[in-house]
Amino acid sequence: MEGERKYITCEELKEHNKPGDLWISIQGKVYNVSDWAKEHPGGDTILFNLAGQDVTDAFIAYHPGTAWQYLDKLFTGFYLKDFKVSEVSKDYRRMASEFSRLGLFEKKGHGAMYSILIITTLLHLVVYGVLKSESVLVHLVCGMMLGALWIEGAYIGHDAGHYQIMSSRKCNDIAQILAGNCLTGISIAWWKWTHNAHHIACNSLDYDPDLQHIPVFAVSTKFFNSITSIFYGRELKFDPVARFLISYQHFTYYPVMVVGRVNLFIQTFLLLFSRGNVPNRALNIMGILVFWTWFPLLVSCLPTWSERVMFVVASFTVTALQHIQFTLNHFSGDTYLGPPTSNDWFEKQAAGTLDISCSTWMDWFFGGLQFQLEHHLFPRLPRCQLRTISPTVKELCKKHNLPYRSLSFWEANVSTIRTLRTAALQARDLSNPVPKNLVWEALNTHG
């Protein structure tokens, strides 16, 4: 009976937001996820970020209909008393329900098959070119093809990480390890740890790890206050070194993207050999060992050290295109400080993301991530459906006066460089209260 229900208020729910005491609300029912946090397939970080509030929209975005049956064992017996669903959230939930009714989440298309075919072809060409040809030019082209192979492999790993490729969870897990760890050398455990946090707290300066690149990059002057990263649990110090590097970030942006893969390798090793809880640690380490067996072996087959360096640099340079794409989607988006909140899921995703417009025949190049807003709203949706739902998402943004930014690849680059330059020029202002550095001041005395 309705009168027999037990209720708590939103303020009371907020009190349950600490490790060991994590409560959330989904469609008005309150659940205790304190013990479940460590078993959560998406990691415990996102539960910590959203604890103490209603998470219905995020739950709908990330979970299939079959996940609802597992909530009953976590039910506290309480219902949320005074939570009001926004009109945007109501429309978003109706949209998700309609997409589910149409079967769009199950219609996966042939994108993964085409990507696997491309990867297989490129891998054969690279190995054949390195082993059978003595031409320096051929070896250069092979390095570039390896970079393209890594790009396609990352898209497969990304889609499998969101369980888009196959219906079986186990098959998706295998695809993640093969495409991520074995093929690209980047741990899927590291990727899921950071990527899920990014999705949940899109463009939060202190919660989203994809914006926390101090001392190399700062997309907002708020980083100049040495904010604390909730994700990494440490202070992002804006010291003299950071100020110097950030002062020139609009010039160093592209060169850093070329060597960005080195940072991903380092982050992978730091996580896998850390003391923290890493899901499937042994399997991830085995996958990484596969990569660090075949890749150095392939490079060693080149006749000279100069060609080996050329080969590696060429592969990294091509892969930089993907690193650039990832940053274009968010660097020039709106940012905020603080945790993600419960009733503005759609608004936060729209504000923090940027779509890249392209022709249909270029969809393979962007791996579906040119529809970044659509992907953030429906991360489980196969990439072949993102173009289909784009007009519907655009109309909903228009209805609620929310931004829907879609720029060409060139325009997105201009927008990103403009954002970096704006922060760089302000970082050069010597009135910023950071310790004086004589070397920095000498280099910048005359602007």
Can you give a write-up of this model?
This protein is globular. The model is unreliable at 435-447 (pLDDT under 50). Helices cover 54% and strands 6% of the residues. It has 447 residues and is α/β, with parallel strands linked by helices. It has 19 helices and nine strands. The protein has a five-stranded mixed sheet. The chain has a domain at 6-84: Cytochrome b5-like heme/steroid binding domain (Flavocytochrome B2, Chain A, domain 1), CATH 3.10.120.10. A hairpin with a 2-residue loop joins strand 2 (17-18) and strand 3 (21-26). The chain has helices at 10-14, 45-50, 56-62, 87-101, 111-132, 136-161, 169-184, 188-200, 240-246, 249-258, 260-272, 281-300, 305-328, 345-352, 363-366, 372-377, 386-399, 409-427, 438-444; strands spanning 6-8, 17-18, 21-26, 29-32, 75-80, 228-229, 234-235, 355-356, 406-407. Helix 5 runs antiparallel to helix 6 (136-161), helix 6 runs parallel beside helix 13 and helix 7 (169-184) packs parallel to helix 12.
Spatial arrangement of strands, main beta sheet: 1-5-4-3-2
What's the β-strand tally?
9
CATH architecture of the domain at 6-84: Roll
The CATH class of the domain at 6-84, by name, is Alpha Beta
Return residue spans where pLDDT drops below 50 for at least 5 consecutive residues.
435-447
Strand content bin: 5-15%
Record the SSE blueprint.
Layout: E1 6-8, H1 10-14, E2 17-18, E3 21-26, E4 29-32, H2 45-50, H3 56-62, E5 75-80, H4 87-101, H5 111-132, H6 136-161, H7 169-184, H8 188-200, E6 228-229, E7 234-235, H9 240-246, H10 249-258, H11 260-272, H12 281-300, H13 305-328, H14 345-352, E8 355-356, H15 363-366, H16 372-377, H17 386-399, E9 406-407, H18 409-427, H19 438-444
Parallel strand pairs: 1-5, 8-9
Antiparallel strand pairs: 2-3, 3-4, 4-5, 6-7
Transmembrane segments: 111-131, 137-156, 253-273, 285-305
Protein name: Cytochrome b5 heme-binding domain-containing protein
Keywords: Lipid metabolism, Membrane, Oxidoreductase, Transmembrane, Transmembrane helix
